[in-house]
Amino acid sequence: MSGLGLNVQVFESKRLGLNDTPKSYKFSKVASYQAEFCQWGCDYDDDGGGDGYGNFSVAIVKLQDGTVAMPRADMIQFIG
Questions:
Q1: What total number of domains does the chain contain?
Q2: What is the chain's pLDDT, residue by residue, as a tens digit (80 residues)?
Q3: How far apart (Å, rounded) are the C-alpha atoms in residues 62 and 6?
Q4: CATH number assigned to the domain comprising residue 71
């Protein structure tokens, strides 16, 4: 990647269901794509059911095609 930012590997969670009950799901962190780190930001999640919400840190990253993504901070790794 070119540019002034640092390169990062972005991961995604893949669900590994043991059976059909949500409490039995396990997740695996899988490499998804590489991008250029721009800066830190924050985002929020609201489950839509009124059961709660939360704020969390994100990395603002630029993909090779110029689009921007905001993966959670724990889902990136700085590389070379």
A1: 1
A2: 444 579 999 999 887 766 666 666 677 889 999 999 999 999 988 766 666 678 899 999 999 999 999 999 999 999 97
A3: 10
A4: 2.30.30
